[in-house]
Amino acid sequence: MEMGCVWMRRVQAGANSVLLMKSSTVFSSSKTTCTIRYERNPSTFSPSLNLPPTTLLSILSPTRRFLTTASYSPPNPIVAIDDYSYDSGSGDDGNVLRKKGSKVLLKGMRYTELEQWVRSHGFRPGQALMLWKRLYGNNIWAHYIDELEGLNKDFKKMLSEHAEFKALSLKDVLTAADGTRKILFMLDDGMVIETVVIPCDRGRTTVCVSSQVGCAMNCQFCYTGRMGLKRHLTAAEIVEQAVFARRLLSSEVGCITNVVFMGMGEPLHNVENVIKAADIMVHDQGLHFSPRKVTVSTSGLVPQLKRFLRESNCALAVSLNATTDEVRNWIMPINRKYKLGFLLQTLRDELRLKNNYKVLFEYVMLAGVNDSFDDAKRLIDLVQSIPCKINLISFNPHCGSQFRPTSEEKMIEFRNILAEAGCTVFLRLSRGDDQMAACGQLGKPGEIQAPLLRVPDQFKISVNA
User: In the prediction, which pLDDT does 101 show?
Assistant: First the structure.
């Protein structure tokens, strides 16, 4: 990553002003394209702006509510986005992440890349496989050079001089009443991410990994979305969460069998690194997760969704959460770019190319907003001819939330309507919510937060109840 200068422009509107900033940081891969529109007087300032992934982003409603930053100019400002688009790649670590001078971070490489790197230092490919197994397999999960027992002495000397093993530093582990663990990791730049390990009494334990620091999608029911996007995680930082979870907790919770990319961030906004990390996780000589037990979630970035389905054998989850464009435009602003009909038709088209593959639809139930019996009937129609399962998820309240959870009784009635129509449907109740470890509760918004969007008139009574 190259660091450059910053330009700033302050736009005046009476007593209020907005400080707009753009870093000249150069990234080797993709970018996010957006249009900034000034709220009070659109003719005053309306440039197109290419933002690097490290910029803090949020999405305003089409009604263009004005965001006031009267006397505060944050170092990473929230930028209001009306129109935005994403290309198919968002990785910023290239093929190999360099860390601490010239050292290579090993967990940033697929096996073929590791093998090539080992050979470039004059060692046999077999040494690469032995190293790979000590990083990811054989119950070693090595973090230090002295944990690489059985390797050639000269090879270990080379690794100590040229390689780095850890992408994350452990900050804290919080344990919820139900046994769920929330792990806080410190990144090299001082930022913090959260990973959740969820034990299950049926012999399945799931690790929920983050893919970004914060999130740009601004889903209105999600606490992480209040942060805006601070930066993407590298492939190494994503993989290390699963490695650390196994290393820390396997003796306590048993074998970790499943991975879900449902922590902080929109995984397909960071599609390059997410696909790479998923590939590393399912390698049969390493972490060896089953591809069908590694699930990548998305709010509905259609181009990246198509790329993921074509390049990866891992499972896909789509956060649906509404049965009309009107509601989804409000609670999930990404819907203004990729409408429900377009998203679902893309899934129909793409899944015809995959055998025995089902998408998982996630549906967070919000009292008085998307939990009516009419919503249940519309949902049945929406998913017709899409091979799928549906998870009904209890909303988990958080500070500043506008919403209330649907009662368990109504969730059961909603589920029954879907099941009677032939849908495969499950109830997913809260896990770890007493430690803010449940779905939609991760992260820590700062003083400046992504905006709450205007509540449609017909839902004001439900939201304000």
Answer: 59
